[in-house]
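Please check the following for our workbook:

***
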Amino acid sequence: MLIFLKPRLVLLSVPKTGTTALEEALSPQAEIAFRSRPEIKHLNLRQYLNRIRPLLNPLGGPEFETVAVVREPLDWLRSWYRFRARDGLIGHANSTAHVSFEAFAADYLRPGNRPEYARLGRQSEFLIDHDGAIAVDHVFRYEAMPALVEFLSQRLGTRIALRRRNVSPQATTDLPPAAEARLREALAPEYAIWQAARQVP
């Protein structure tokens, strides 16, 4: 999470949506930066509202606006699968190195106690308020990153150049048509959020 005081912006860091590249490019302009450890870097909207916004209230002025990025849901899962297939995780319970993407996707959808490697939340969990409503002010598609960069450039008054960071290794992520259809159906609420996300500044 990055907080910019003068433009009154809070950039939430939804995992696997280019947050490392954004953090690297924008940290010098941010007065407050929560980074490094995942539980600090990836604070969601409710955590911001509960813990961080009260600390900003004494500053006065207009309300801070929140910004976040969401990724096409199936591609988001593919990115997590590839990330957890990296050599550094082999032998750990959350490694997908010896698990097919089809098995990973099926375990992700499994109710109840999922294997460690399939214990992921949903992107929507980062965007909802205490009433369960999507309450981030500006939600951009990951696939429209230039639009987000233009938006942030305008609001921050500076040019922004992103470099690729935290790139996951290559892995086979094909799915049989029936399995893909089940996954897309289960992720329909996530797709609705992604479809509604901004593609223009």
